[in-house]
Design goal:
Strand content: 25-35%
Largest sheet: 7 strands, mixed
Helix content: 25-40%
CATH topology: Rossmann fold
Shape: globular
Number of helices: 8
Strand order of the largest sheet: 5-4-3-6-7-13-10
Radius of gyration: 18 Å
Number of domains: 1
Length: 277
């Protein structure tokens, strides 16, 4: 698939990359869940809590490290919550996703939020983008890279897409997460998620090393959601208490004395810039 689009003064082209062999399965799954996705974000269950806190943390890192305003790329944008959040921070946003239903919903939600003039959405397989005028000030990839067989090629592309002082905010499931280790499911490099899609997992250190090989330097890191802890299908010490405990541990992991605790989070968010040549 090839084509040209414009976002303000940003021009780009989209081409397929053959590093996501289960692309069809991923698209079908997210098409199926599109109608309920916004409900999941607002729900009180663990998944909704995880998604909301993930987005909040990612946007706080954008505010801390990114140039103010400019262009942003939201990879695996889904129905567009991160795209809308970036638009509210003043960015012109391009959202990319495999699932047509998700893209249509993202457009609808951007109109409802009053940010459609700053958001554009493209349905494609993995995008190869050649931005004009120096690249993207922000690239956000939340729950995206783990679906790819070959992450290093994608990381190198992301490096090419970044503006000189731009940042990449990358989130993914943690291979050494505390909840998985307690359930005897931690440590696996390849794993099928709850809907049967194959995902490749990394620890925070492994991702930092891989990104360094691809010319990216990690400048910040946060562990995300050390719980709620569940063993044998039951929350400990009960759901409400487990969520309360998770929030307290996350607060500790966000401070320097407890930062290492974040290495056991359910997922992690890393911030990268281009490494010096």
């Amino acid at each position: 698939m090839e084509g040209g689009r414009e976002i303000g003064e940003l021009s780009f082209e989209v081409r397929e990359m053959n590093c996501q062999p289960q692309a069809t399965e991923v698209a079908r799954h997210f098409d199926r869940v599109c109608q309920s996705w916004n409900d999941v974000y607002q729900g009180n269950d663990p998944e909704g809590y995880l998604l909301r806190t993930r987005l909040k943390l990612a946007m706080s890192l954008v505010r801390r490290h990114a140039p103010k305003g400019g262009r942003a790329l939201d990879l695996g944008c889904g129905c567009g919550p991160a795209s809308r959040a970036l638009a509210r921070q003043g960015y012109e946003v391009l959202g990319i996703d495999l699932a047509p239903a998700m893209i249509e919903q993202a457009r609808v939600e951007a109109i409802r939020a009053g940010v459609a003039d700053r958001c554009r959405f493209q349905c494609t397989d993995v995008a190869s983008i050649a931005p004009a005028n120096g690249g993207f000030e922000v690239i956000v990839a939340l729950g995206f890279i783990e679906y790819f067989d070959e992450a290093s090629g994608l990381l190198r592309k992301m490096r090419e897409w970044l503006a000189d002082q731009g940042i990449l905010v990358l989130q993914m499931t943690n291979r050494i997460r505390l909840s998985g280790l307690l359930e005897g499911k931690g440590g696996q490099r390849m794993q099928r998620n709850g809907v049967g899609l194959l995902t490749r997992q990394y620890s925070p250190g492994e991702m930092a090393d891989l990104a360094a090989e691809c010319g990216l330097r990690r400048i910040d890191y946060r562990g995300h959601s050390l719980g709620p802890i569940k063993i044998a299908g039951r929350f400990l010490p009960g759901y409400r208490a487990a969520v309360w405990l998770d929030r307290r541990m996350d607060a500790l992991a966000d401070r320097w004395p407890g930062r290492r605790l974040g290495y056991l989070g359910t997922s992690f968010i890393s911030v990268f810039r281009r490494a010096s040549s």
